[in-house]
Amino acid sequence: MKVVDKMLEWENGGSLKLLSVGYSLRAPELLFRKIEDAEVQYQIDKLKTGLEKSKMEQQQASNQQTAAGNESEAKSQTTNLKSEIVYDDFDKLDLRIGTIITAEKVQKADKLLKLEVNLGFEKRTIVSGIAQHFLPEELINKQVIVVANLAPRKMRGIESQGMILTAEEPGGKLILVNPDSLAQNGSNVK
Predict the structure, then answer these.
(1) Under CATH, what is the fold of the domain 92-176?
(2) What's the rounded Cα separation, in Å, for the pair 32 and 30?
(3) Which of 5, 46, 112, 144: disulfide with 164, CB 3.0–4.6 Å?
(4) How many other β-carbons are positioned within 10 Å of the β-carbon of residue 146?
């Protein structure tokens, strides 16, 4: 190998005497092969097809995750049970059928309705946090299940003498729990 060729090696790249005056360069060589337009277009099309396929797969995966998430959320809500009780604890509840006679919004309270419920043996005032789910006029003459032996409690200055039962759906919507067919007011629920 000539001394000049040795000067062209990598470790001599920063040297000021890299090339001497009058040095003739070697014949030029192509560093990369020429890529034709047809080959470029083929690769672009291939990328677009792959990208579209990837988007479809991601959408399918997202749909599956959403479905699994909804199912998981529903399972989560149904499996988050309170601690187990014995029958004697349940038997302490006095659940009765009642019919709503009157319903009105509680002043200065967005969530509360004041209900008058006929339990057959007496009429009771029950304050319930269902105003965002039901219009007062929709509730008149509806039968509901009432926890009749719940200790009275004052809410916004009104003594509530029980609680009506509702079911809460995963989205937060409330549904009245009531008998499937007309039942006598005051009937026990077991």
Answers:
(1) OB fold (Dihydrolipoamide Acetyltransferase, E2P) (2.40.50)
(2) 6
(3) 144
(4) 26
